[in-house]
Amino acid sequence: xxxxxxxxxxxxxxxxxxxxxxxxxxxxxxxxxxxxxxxxxxxxxxxxxxxxxxxxxxxxxxxxxxxxxxxxxxxxxxxxxxxxxxxxxxxxxxxxxxxxxxxxxxxxxxxxxxxxxxxxxxxxxxxxxxxxxxxxxxxxxxxxxxxxxxxxxxxxxxxxxxxxxxxxxxxxxxxxxxxxxxxxxxxxxxxxxxxxxxxxxxxxxxxxxxxxxxxxxxxxxxxxxxxxxxxxxxxxxxxxxxxxxxxxxxxxxxxxxxxxxxxxxxxxxxxxxxxxxxxxxxxxxxxxxxxxxxxxxxxxxxxxxxxxxxxxxxxxxxxxxxxxxxxxxxxxxxxxxxxxxxxxxxxxxxxxxxxxxxxxxxxxxxxxxxxxxxxxxx
Length: 378
Description:
It is a multi-pass membrane protein. Its main location: membrane. Keywords: Cell inner membrane, Cell membrane, Membrane, Transmembrane, Transmembrane helix, Transport. The chain is an alpha+beta fold. Helices cover 57% and strands 16% of the residues. It has a six-stranded antiparallel β-sheet with strand order 1-2-3-4-5-6. α1 runs antiparallel to α2 (48-81), α2 packs antiparallel against α4 (99-136) and α4 (99-136) runs antiparallel to α7. 26% of the residues are buried.
């Protein structure tokens, strides 16, 4: 029990440090991406914090899987490097005795990964899609940030406003450049506001401004002043209800979804906790390292295994999504093969007669030292 408590504390400490690093990288990456979209006018600047939180929540299952895998691997590798495992094996204890404390640390991580994959991540994706779609369905003038030029959705108008009056749709010092079959028209006004017609159509009403039509210096060039000028922005009422994507469907709706996209998304959600459990167990036999050698190779191999595993899961998901394979024959074979690999590695490490076993390495090291002493003895 003392050994298990000490081992769990060490793994928890390693998990905290690893999670902090990975989470910081994820938040920084997401911050740069969301700020870039906000600067490009694809999302509202007021939604940046919420979109960062939703995107980070989407990455949490992957972060937890990698955190648990690296934490167990680091603890096992340190035990080999400090020759604690040699003493462990010399005391007659098996490598399988590590399974219980590793699972007591890893099972909460597996359950948390499953909860995030099945519940939290779909909710975050749904809310993120709603924020983006709601901004895309706003009127062209409401998307304009003060001091920036903005192209309309139909690509035939360019808006510029100098300021916004309060929290309403009223904007001040408006510039509108319109290109249509009649040529180019430029409109400047002191203020503008969005009005809704009887049938749901939207109009931009400009007040106290001027309209320039045509090319200056030509005979068809026209100039007029107006107190109120209306132009249609949209022709029908827009529905703000966003369509649910497959990856944003709740788990109960996804279980009843028999489409290829629904089955592929269910496969991905099942794979997250299964991957977390298998990688935690794989870290125990994979953590072997020669005490006289460096331990960085294990971490590189672990990262390659993690990314390879994730990519293969994505390939299987794409195969189900494209209808090339069925869900019933696709969600389990990869994890069964990975579990068999874990079993094979445990069997390999438990083979005391193998030349790469720690006890065999220790015996070989002692024999080489003894032979060196005999060689120098007169």
